[in-house]
């Protein structure tokens, strides 16, 4: 019997395992079922293929299995190439005691291997059969809002709640990128295949990633490559001025076009499989084409032409709105902005432009309406954008699992129940499209240099779930959570699973209960976006108002009497949201201004609903803490300490939310709580 020896692949990489960092969903024990078997791997010599081999070699070495030659008689698991249309898809076959994973190339084999890890022992003992598994969309992306230099206000990772950046020390790309390699491995095992490595707010130092810092980009890309992950960079619209010394960034100026073409040549010379540029233009003070009287299509298409010869992509963000609004101006509605700026240009964006649109028309709120812009561009490649980092959802101090929220958003039927969804649009299946406009899914990462990766150890579940949902948006989010628990705590007693489900399954709904009610949005502390401040944004320039007075609250976005935002939706939603009769309770204050005594479909008044949910929200958090405290000994001590510390802060903060919001509604409405509970 011929054994696969490491000498067959002289450059077999060692797996990036740093014992001082939490292994997240890839602890060694998760590889036991695979690693205790006789495994044959037949692969080429590509970087990803070497990763497949390295995984198998490490697993069998740790768990007593064996690497055997492809074709050996007693193989229990075979990983081998086979023809298939999608290079990332794989086929799993279980027959007569042998499990085979086949794929067109090594990326599919790597995904197949991690699929086996997820299935555990079941992968080898389940019923015979054949399953072909392919990703929902080829673009499954994480954006890092990491700065190379520590920003004086935002810190190193903008909206980062897990320490510094895994890519950068203050001022430079890290010399040791082991953490990045570990991260790449975790991402590959969850399904992510693209990463943008710097903040969309691009500072002067970060602009140099296109220039003298390119060797660092190449180093990072080299770390992601073996895991099938393509590297992207966020660029500044002003780069030709900042870096190139030009006097203009006008997309119609030949010298600007030429500058970008040369920049692209440089980037792809350094990183031949580079992904492309992400850009935030004319957004919250970032420069953009508006300064030259040009449209976003003009800007995007100019960049697209520069990267097209290299097969590159432009992710052009649609987060464009007036952030210097006069709060007295009642006609301007920020919610309408993305649609107004982008929908008229549908069909005019180049083939390699992807318009990246936040899932909500405001900004990653705990509950807001769906962005109508996502449904308005059948002739454009669209990537809806999400946030894994919890800017408005508790800063990874609160235990909030986002899988259920994302699942609801991904499955939102823009054209009515049973029809095409947000996830369909992302995959190029807009009902009025020709099927070729494949966009993707993007989200802001929640990872930092924290020993648990995500500050709150339970926030790892969000990173895992994001990857899994980009691969399969129809997957059950609680089943994904269950999968994460099983991988992360492989030998744990049943009570660990029960506790984590009790704490996390409905934690998004709990968070909604104790924060901004009924889709009203933005009752947060300005700037940090942590903790309650009901009027914090009310007289600000940011366009995020709720118009509470003594009689009522909410934003009238109807066509009949309000801003007309409801008219941006296709049927049936344009009418469902327009009418008080049919508008869902949870979005009532997003679409309508109503008296505090307005009766919801639930039968309660608005104000009583606010009181009840806020009291109940804290009760639910306290119940989670009770469950946690009862069972914390079943968890690893360092992790238990961290979670316990976070829970203490969550209880403090939730109490604050409950009392501030309830008091605000009591003082404005003058309506007492029907149950006479304490409100201040
Ligand atoms: C939010 C967030 C900013 C971020 C911006 C964006 O406004 O608070 O930190 O830069 O979104 O998405 O560009």
Automatic annotation (TrEMBL):
Gene Ontology CC annotations of this record: extracellular region
A biological process term (GO) from this entry: xylan catabolic process
SUPFAM superfamilies: (Trans)glycosidases, beta-N-acetylhexosaminidase-like domain
Keywords: Hydrolase
Membrane-spanning segments: none
Top-rank taxon, per record: Bacteria
Boundaries of every Glycosyl hydrolase family 67 catalytic domain copy: 133-453
Glycosyl hydrolase family 67 C-terminal domain residues: 454-677
Record Gene3D superfamilies: Alpha-glucuronidase, C-terminal domain, Chitobiase/beta-hexosaminidase domain 2-like, Glycosidases
GO molecular-function terms, A-Z: alpha-glucuronidase activity; xylan alpha-1,2-glucuronosidase activity
Pfam families, alphabetized: Glyco_hydro_67C (PF07477), Glyco_hydro_67M (PF07488)
Protein name, entry field: Alpha-glucuronidase
Organism classification: Bacteria, Bacillati, Actinomycetota, Actinomycetes, Micrococcales
């Amino acid at each position: 019997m011929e054994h696969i020896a490491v000498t067959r692949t002289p450059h077999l990489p060692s797996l990036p395992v740093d014992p001082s960092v939490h292994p997240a969903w890839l602890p060694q024990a998760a590889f036991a079922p695979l690693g205790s078997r006789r495994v044959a791997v037949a692969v080429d010599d590509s970087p990803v293929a070497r990763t497949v081999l390295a995984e198998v070699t490490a697993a069998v070495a740790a768990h007593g299995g064996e690497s055997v030659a492809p074709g050996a008689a007693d193989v229990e698991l075979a990983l081998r190439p086979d023809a298939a249309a999608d290079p990332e898809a794989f086929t799993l076959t279980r027959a007569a005691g042998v499990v085979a994973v086949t794929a067109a190339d090594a990326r599919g084999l790597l995904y197949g291997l991690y699929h086996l890890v997820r299935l555990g022992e079941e992968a080898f003992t389940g019923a015979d059969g054949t399953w072909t598994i392919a990703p929902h969309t080829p673009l499954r992306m994480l954006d890092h809002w990491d700065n190379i230099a520590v920003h004086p206000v935002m810190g190193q990772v903008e909206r980062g709640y897990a320490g510094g950046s895994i890519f950068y020390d203050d001022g430079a790309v890290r010399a040791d990128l082991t953490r990045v390699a570990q991260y790449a491995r975790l991402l590959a095992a969850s399904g992510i295949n693209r990463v943008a490595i710097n903040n969309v707010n691009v500072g002067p130092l970060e602009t140099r990633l296109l220039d003298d810092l390119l060797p660092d980009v190449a180093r990072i890309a080299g770390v992601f490559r073996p895991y099938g992950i393509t590297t992207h960079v966020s660029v500044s619209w002003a780069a030709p001025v900042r870096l190139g010394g030009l006097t203009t960034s006008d997309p119609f100026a030949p010298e600007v076009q030429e500058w970008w073409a040369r920049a692209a040549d440089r980037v792809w010379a350094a990183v031949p499989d580079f992904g492309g540029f992400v850009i935030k233009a004319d957004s919250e003070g970032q420069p953009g084409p508006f300064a030259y009287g040009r449209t976003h299509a003009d800007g995007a298409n100019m960049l697209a032409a520069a990267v097209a010869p290299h097969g590159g992509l432009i992710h052009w963000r649609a987060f464009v709105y007036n952030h210097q609004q006069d709060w007295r101006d009642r006609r301007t509605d920020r919610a309408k902005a993305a649609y107004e700026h982008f929908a008229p240009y549908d069909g005019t964006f180049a083939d390699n432009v992807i318009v990246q649109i936040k899932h909500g028309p405001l900004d990653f709120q705990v509950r807001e309406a769906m962005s109508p812009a996502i449904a308005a561009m059948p002739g454009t490649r669209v990537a809806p954008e999400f946030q894994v980092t919890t800017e408005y959802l508790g800063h990874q101090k609160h235990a909030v699992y986002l899988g259920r929220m994302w699942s609801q958003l991904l499955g939102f039927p823009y054209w009515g129940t049973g029809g095409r969804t947000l996830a369909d649009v992302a995959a190029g299946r807009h009902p009025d499209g020709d099927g070729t406009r494949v966009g993707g899914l993007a989200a802001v990462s929640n990872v930092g240099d924290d020993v648990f990766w995500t500050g709150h150890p339970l926030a790892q579940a969000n990173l895992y779930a994001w990857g899994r949902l980009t691969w399969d948006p129809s997957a059950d989010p609680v089943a994904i959570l269950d999968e994460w628990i099983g991988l992360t705590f492989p030998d744990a007693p049943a009570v660990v699973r029960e506790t984590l489900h009790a704490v996390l399954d409905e934690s998004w709904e709990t968070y909604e209960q104790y924060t901004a009610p009924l889709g009203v949005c933005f009752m947060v502390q300005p700037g940090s976006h942590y903790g309650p401040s009901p009027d914090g944004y009310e007289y600000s320039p940011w366009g995020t108002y709720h118009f509470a007075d003594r009689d009522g609250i909410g934003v009238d976005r109807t066509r009949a009497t309000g801003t007309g935002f409801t008219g941006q939706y296709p049927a049936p939603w344009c009418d469902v949201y327009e009418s008080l009769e049919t508008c869902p309770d949870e979005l009532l204050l997003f679409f309508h201004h109503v008296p505090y005594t307005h009766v919801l479909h639930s039968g309660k008044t608005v104000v009583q609903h606010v009181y009840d949910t806020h009291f109940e929200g804290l009760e639910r958090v306290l119940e989670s803490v009770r469950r946690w405290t009862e069972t914390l000994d079943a968890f690893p001590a360092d992790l238990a300490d961290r979670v316990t510390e976070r829970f203490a802060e969550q209880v403090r903060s939730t109490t604050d939310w409950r009392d501030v919001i309830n008091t605000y509604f009591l003082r404005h409405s003058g309506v007492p709580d029907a149950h006479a509970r304490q409100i201040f």
